[in-house]
Every structure is written in structure tokens, then in C-alpha cells.
Amino acid sequence: MMTQYKLRNLATGREFNDEGWTLNDPAYDKPSLIRADYTEKQLNLRDSSLGIYRFSGWLPVNRFLNNAPVTITYKSEKLADKLGLKNLYIAYSGYWPEIGANMTTCSFKETEAYSVCARLSEKSNKILVVASAGNTARAFAKVCSENHIPLLLVVPFDNRDAMWFREKLDPCVKLICTPKGSDYFDAIDLSAKICKSPIFIEEGGARNIARRDGMGTTVLSATTFIGRIPDYYFQAIGSGTGTIAAWEANLRLIEDGRFGSNKMVLLPSQNIPFTPMYDAWCAGSRTIVFENEEIARENALKIGAKVLSNRRPPYSIPGGLFDALNDTGGEIEVADNSEMEAACRLFEEYEGIDIHPAAGIALAGMIKSIKKRCIDPNSVLMLNITGGGEKRVKEEYNMIYHEPDLIIDNSTEQEVIINMAEALFK
Questions:
Q1: CB neighbour list of residue 376: distance below 8 Å, 6 or more residues apart
Q2: pLDDT tens digit string along 279-316?
Q3: What pTM, to 2 d.p., does this model score?
Q4: Which of 100, 197, 337, 379 would suit a FRET pair with 291, their CA atoms being 20 to 30 Å apart?
Q5: Could you tell me the fold of the domain covering 72-106+211-393?
């Protein structure tokens, strides 16, 4: 099976075919996101046993992989009552068996991994390269290990504690770390150097339609459960890719015609003191400018939600977060580490499950946004809880921590980097 779609350049509107792993418009020499325009204009829900692939009509996939879970949406009662809200819907991606949530990496990054890896052809002889601050690496490692897909992960050394698993990884998965004191941008930079080798293929991040459309299934989960498009959307952002994905899913749902015609007001949040997108947005600027790169790196290391530390997010690019916020009347909120911790405690007390720090930033930002914007308590709110249940899953299972196969400094010569990476798969 293969989903039918065309690709569209969001800067020019040009439509063209996907050559299998197209990340950019080959006829356009400037940065721009591309988007999938699916032949299936009305969402046809497949059997729930397929997990995320029940939304396969709006996923650019060539196959279905094993053990694919899906985001679970439910209507909040206790937390909603505490916050004075009538229609708070929580899209929960994580581990919480009682509600049917079975993402054992405890992160919505599984929505990306099951979509991206299913876009990759079974006939491909390339090794997929993924740079990550932690959760994405864990999700891709699980999916590739279980489905025997060769994978090279690049993760900052200080984030290696995110590499925990219920089972030992298949040898097809390898891990390279950038040195101690490095950050997510360093991992992205090193992965780009590795991908100069012909045996590797870059995953592509926000430029990969499969990553964005996989993330967009959180909105499909919420909308099909509620029966209508939500009024407001809340999520924490590091790159903003999930919020871009939410916007794109919303546009497809409007075209579907059965769930309403409104655009969700996008209200994502960043973790103080690392707030490059918030700073640019408040300045009315499409461009993110770091006056001092070293201070930006230090601030990225100070935030409690480590996964929100992208120094080169898809904010400015056509089709990126700046455009999404403008199109929906959105804004960016911020919350500090203490507000994040309080929000995590609040969620666990009233909903009954632990959540990741990034999800705590989303909840803290939501609370502040509601007060600032005087949001009607009867509005339909979607809170994207992008990770949770880690405490629970670690109580139930003995975790195996995967150690790096190599540590490579970004300043190493290009040829040496490639030789070291290639040697891992010989």
C-alpha cells in the first residue's frame, strides 16, 4: 500500500511528485517547507487496531510497521474543574494503560517515528540518521529496533540518560554522542556532517512531511473524539514543529468539511530562560537573532524541559511557526522551571499520572494564556500532553540504558567523522 498525495512548495505554491524521500522543492533554491496534499480529502478512519495508521489516509506511508500506538484523547474532569473550564480535552501521548495509552517511550515522538519510518521504503539501502535532544532518539530507536530498520542516532552527551528502553536494542541501532557540554544544535550539526556519506540519509526534521503529519495525528485524535475542531491549542515548543503540524492538520480538517471551519488559535509555550521564538515573536520579527551564541547555549542548558532546546527552529521558513501563528491569531507564552514543576504536580494530582517537563510547560503556559486572553471557560480547549507515564513505566519495568557507541567532537575533520560513523555498520 502507498498513500496517494502530491507535494506543494509553501513559498511558491508549486505542486510536484514525491521522489521517495523528498525534503525540499528541487526547483526552488531558497528555504521553504513542503506540504503533502492528500488525494483523500475526507479523513477515512481505519480500524483502531492499526494504532497511528488508522489515520493513514493523511500520512505519507508506504507500509504499516509493528506495534504502532496512537495518541489517546479524553475529556478532563478534575483538572478542568480546578481550572474552571467546561471543555478541556487532553490529547495524551505516553504510557497510561488504563486509558489505552501505550507509548512505552512515554513520548509523542512515537507519532513521528512510526510515520517517518513507514515512509522509508523497504527496498531502501540507506541508513537513517536522526539528531535528537532525547525523546525523539528514544522513539526512533524503539521503532527501528522492533522493525529491523538501520538507524544512527546523534544525541548530546548530557542527554544520554534519555536513552532508556524496556528491551535491549537490536544491533541495527547505533548511538553517537556529541561531547559533554554540547547541545541539540551540536547534534544537528554533527548529523549533517555524517550525512555527507552516501550510505546515510538524513531524517530531515521539520522538512520531512512524515514527521509533521505524524505529529498532526494528535489533532486528528482530538478532533475525531470531540466531533469538532477545538477552539484553542496548547503545546510546549522547542522547534515548533508539532504546532506547525497541528495547524496543517487543522487546515485538512477544514477541507474535510465535517468538523467545522474554524482555525484553532495556536498558543504554544517556551521554557524560560531559553525563549528565542518568543523573543522574536514579541519583537514582531520573522527572524530569530542570537546576540550571543554562547549565552544562548548556556540558557538552553538551564531549562528544565531539555527537549525544548532547539537553537535553529523552523520559525522563519515559509510554512513555519511564524506563518502558523499569524494565520491563526496565535501567540507564544513562556513559563519558568518553577512554574513547570508546579504544573507537573498539578496534573499528577488531578489527572492521576505523571507528565514530562515539556508537557508541564504546555500546562503552565495554558494557564497563563487563559488568564491573559480572558478565554471563555466554555471554549473547546485542546491540551497536547506530549509525554507522560515515565514514572509509571519505570516502576513496572526494569529499564536498560543504551550507552553511546562513539563520542565525536564536531570539530573533528569531516572525513574522519564519516569514516567513524560508517565503521559502526560494517
A1: none
A2: 999 999 999 999 898 999 899 989 999 889 888 899 99
A3: 0.96
A4: 337
A5: Rossmann fold (3.40.50)
